[in-house]
Amino acid sequence: MPGSRKAALPNTGLPPRFPSPAPGGLGRNDGARFGSGSARRAFFLLMLVLLGACGFHPRGESARPAAAISPVYISGLAEHHPLVRELRRQMQDSGVRLTAEQSQAATILRLGKPHRKRSVFSVNANNKAVEYEVRRSLRFSVEHPPGNRVLNDEELDTSYIVYNPGGELLGRAREEELRVRDAYRELAGRLVTRLSKIR
């Protein structure tokens, strides 16, 4: 009615209550909860980038380089050499097929003998060497297909520091063995990466 005034709501000190959404419907805050369409797209793209960085690839993508160079024949070092064993393991894990017959190979990997060089890294107060830098290198060539040398006398190397103040010969020998294994693992991994880029 004209001139009438609405009754003031009592001040209870509590926040106002909104009606509950209808069953199956969205409340007024649901849009903010789930984000806008552009925010969802940005989140999706971010997840794709993170998955790619951690090594995830869609099915078939990682197999393409392996299929392109398979089967691979390895020559130059004996099968029981620790570097060859590590290399074969990583290649098989990457989907690369190997062959023991050179005539059946699509790619020939020729390995040189791994080279080791040790130099003094630090000395103690008595000018006695206590740390050594060990550098291990590997030269290799790749033919793909056989007779077509796509990589010629390439070199990979890695280095590490060995602490050896003297004494504890058994412990030092064990440490050196582990370092050599790690070095071969790194060289094999880098070599597999190089092979995966061959087309």
Overview of this protein structure:
The protein contains 5 helices and 5 strands, in the order H-H-H-E-H-E-E-E-E-H. The protein has helices at 30-34, 37-53, 63-69, 82-93, 169-196; strands at 72-75, 107-111, 115-123, 129-143, 149-163. Helix 4 packs across helix 5 (169-196). The radius of gyration is 32 Å and the shape is extended.
Q: Keywords for this structure?
A:
199 residues, five-stranded mixed beta sheet, 5 strands, disordered N terminus
Evaluate the radius of gyration: 32 Å
User: Which sequence of SSEs, written as H and E, runs from N to C?
Assistant: HHHEHEEEEH
Number of helices: 5
Biggest pleated sheet:
5 strands, mixed
**What number is the mean pLDDT?**
78
Instruction: Bin the helical content.
Output: 25-40%
- The N- to C-terminal Cα distance equals 87 Å
Number of strands: 5
State which percent range the strand residues make up. 15-25%
3D shape: extended
Low-confidence stretches: 1-7, 26-35, 52-63
Walk me through the topology.
Elements: H1 30-34, H2 37-53, H3 63-69, E1 72-75, H4 82-93, E2 107-111, E3 115-123, E4 129-143, E5 149-163, H5 169-196
Parallel strand pairs: 1-2
Antiparallel strand pairs: 2-4, 3-4, 4-5
Helix pairs in contact: 4-5
